[in-house]
Amino acid sequence: MNEAPAIGFVGFGEAAFHIAKGLRQAGIRTIAAYDIHSDTPGRDELIQSRAEEAGAKLVASNASLAAAADIIFSIVTANQALAAAEATAPYLQPTHLYADLNSVSPGLKQAIARVIEAIGARFVEVAVMAPVPPYGHQVPLLTGGGDAPEFAERLLPFGMK
């Protein structure tokens, strides 16, 4: 079996929670998450309780997230996908895989890829093919881009589809 990668989540809403929880159960031991709303009254308690249930460590910044993870899943609201990439990119290294799971247009996916690849990190375009619950981390995914094979190779052993 492959060595378990350290996983990070930009955004820790419902989809990220279910994917993180499943990955933890499948053997991923290091899971970190950064959500801009983790200290926002009215949202903070849910984010914090989900992180605790999934075994994810909430971190305070994009920089801390990049330092904690090998593979970063971006799962934010569609209108924040580019901003999330721009905020995370300065902290990425060529060893990082940045997987964008957001439901955005092909043009926006390409813009996000340019942001990530411009600093030397690797980008994976991911289309989520069904609602995440009830599948969790086993939700069917369609991946694209030159680094999609590595993304699949590193996560298939942990039950991702």
Could you give a short description of this structure?
By secondary structure, the chain is of the alpha/beta class. The protein has helices at 14-25, 44-54, 62-68, 81-88, 106-118, 132-135, 148-155; strands at residues 7-10, 31-34, 57-58, 71-74, 97-100, 122-128, 141-144.
Task: State the main characteristics.
161 residues, alpha/beta, seven-stranded mixed sheet, 39% helix
Question: What does it look like?
Answer:
- By secondary structure, the protein is an alpha/beta fold.
- Helices cover 39% and strands 18% of the residues.
- The chain is built from 7 helices and 7 strands, in the order E-H-E-H-E-H-E-H-E-H-E-H-E-H.
- It has helices at residues 14-25, 44-54, 62-68, 81-88, 106-118, 132-135, 148-155; strands at residues 7-10, 31-34, 57-58, 71-74, 97-100, 122-128, 141-144.
- The model has no long low-confidence stretch (mean pLDDT 96).
Number of helices: 7
Strand content: 15-25%
Low-confidence stretches: none
Distance separating the two termini = 16 Å
The strand count comes to 7
Q: In what order do the strands lie side by side in the largest sheet?
A: 3-2-1-4-5-6-7
Order of helices and strands: EHEHEHEHEHEHEH
Helix content: 25-40%
Overall pLDDT, averaged?
A: 96
Sequence-ordered SSE layout with sheet pairings:
Elements: E1 7-10, H1 14-25, E2 31-34, H2 44-54, E3 57-58, H3 62-68, E4 71-74, H4 81-88, E5 97-100, H5 106-118, E6 122-128, H6 132-135, E7 141-144, H7 148-155
Parallel strand pairs: 1-2, 1-4, 2-3, 4-5, 5-6
Antiparallel strand pairs: 6-7
Helix pairs in contact: 1-2, 4-5
